[in-house]
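Ticket #4471: structure export looks truncated?
Reporter: QA, pipeline team
Priority: medium

Steps to reproduce: submit the single chain below to the structure queue and open the exported record.
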Amino acid sequence: MKSEYKIAMPPVEISGAPETVKGILEEQKNNFGFLPNMYSAMATAPSLLKMYLNGYRLFREEATFSSVEQEVIFITISRENGCDYCVGAHSMIADKMSGVPEAVTEAIRNNAPIPDQKLQVLHDFVVTMINTRGAPSKSDVAIFLNAGYSEQQVLEVIVAIAVKTLSNYNNHLFHTELDDVFSDYTWAG
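Actual output as written to the record:
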């Protein structure tokens, strides 16, 4: 999904980046071996880039979900928000880094049943949290808890939604092109 409107400001190049984000962009380029297009776009509003990276890091480091579950959450949010860029990028991360079974990733991408019941419950709860704007029913939470998740994880889903909403909306407005490294995982909602 792309916004009808497109931000007119060009994405930020490291050489012309504001000092408040220049070091951050250089660090990200070193981490990835390239500067992701999403970060160049986010850097046009330094607070957006900083908030995203800090929230993303905190979720990855402090959430009690496994790496597979974290990726299921991120792909689910990005799919629900129609973010081609993030579904593509997180599909590659799921495959190459997080160990998500291909059948699980493909099920989420295609809005099909997930072949793992606990991950299906997680996916469904994330969708519920998005669609109810964070106001799930008692039965929605009971299903989540009965699958082995915790109340703390209910709150951690909020962190993931906040983080991915920042990147998804940014990508909608910039019409961010998927980086070549992610091209095998292109998705068009």
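Status: closed, not a bug. The export was complete when the record was re-opened. Leaving a note from the reviewer for reference: Residues 151-174 form the longest helix (24 residues).
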